[in-house]
Amino acid sequence: MALPRAILFDLDDTLIRAYAQPEEAWRRLLGTFAAPLEAHDAPAIEKVRVAVMDEARTLWTDQATAAKWRLDIPGARRLTTRRALSRLGYDDEALADRIADAFTEMRRLEYRLYPDAHATVDALRQAGVRLALVTNGSSEIQRAKIARFDLEHRFHHIQIEGEFGQGKPELAVYRHALEKLGCEACDAWMVGDNYEWEVVAPQKLGMCGIWYDPLDMGVPETATAKPTHVIKRLGELIESS
Ligand SMILES: [Mg+2]
User: Fold this and answer.
1) How far apart are CA 187 and CA 134, in angstroms?
2) Which residues neighbour ligand 1 (ion) by CB within 5 Å?
């Protein structure tokens, strides 16, 4: 892969490990609420986990609803956990909120920078590539991650949905970032883990969509677009150039 003039990077589950593999995280978290949930064995915990994740999937699958709640993920977790507990016959919204908030905090504590993230981004910048960080979500939560993982000074442009006013996959999002970097779409890559946001939408503009697949999930069966490249480690971006 010859390097392009500009690269737009996704943040969550691309540069940092943030929300991937929620099953294990929910199982662990719900285990700590076994007493108030009166869920005293693994199948009882599993029943709650399935209901909670089911409600979350329903909320996040609807695009308009998802676009609204992306700016308040802790609020979305409270809502879906309340719905799940209520469906299972618990009449305790305060308990649902405590569980949702504990999950939010557990996830926050467990964010991790992917080990080759800094080195890759720095090498690309060193090579003269113009770099943008383009992330969905609220200003407060995304800015906290950017500061915590020392990312701000590494990018020429940082664009957060909650600040810009639009999020991926709106084409205006990519257009604005390209304009800020002074680069044409045909000479730019978008790199990230979300198939719609980082492959399908950017390719509509003529950008290359580089799909990051660190957990080796494989291209979704329903995919209509084909990624320009698939990478399993960020370091692959510089190794072959
Ligand atoms: Mg992502």
Assistant:
1) 17
2) 10, 12-13, 193-194
Query: How many A from CA of 173 to the centre of ligand 1?
Result: 15
Residue-wise pLDDT tens for the chain (241 aa)? 799 999 999 999 999 999 888 999 999 999 999 999 999 999 999 999 999 999 999 999 998 999 999 999 999 999 999 999 999 999 999 999 999 999 999 999 999 999 999 999 999 999 999 999 999 999 999 999 999 999 999 999 999 999 999 999 999 999 999 999 999 999 999 999 999 999 999 999 999 999 999 999 998 888 888 999 999 999 999 986 5
**Burial of 152 by CB count in 10 Å (0-12 exposed, 13-18 middle, 19+ buried)?**
exposed
Taking the centre of ligand 1 as the mean of its atom positions, its distance from the CA of residue 137, in whole angstroms, is: 10
pTM greater than 0.90: yes
Cα of 12 vs centre of ligand 1, distance in Å, is: 4
Task: Give me ligand 1 centre to Cα 217, in Å.
Answer: 14
7: CA distance to ligand 1 center in Å?
A: 15
DSSP state of 13: T
Distance (angstroms) between ligand 1 centre and the Cα of 9 equals 9
CA 47–ligand 1 middle distance (angstroms): 28
Alpha carbons 211 and 68: distance in angstroms, whole number: 25
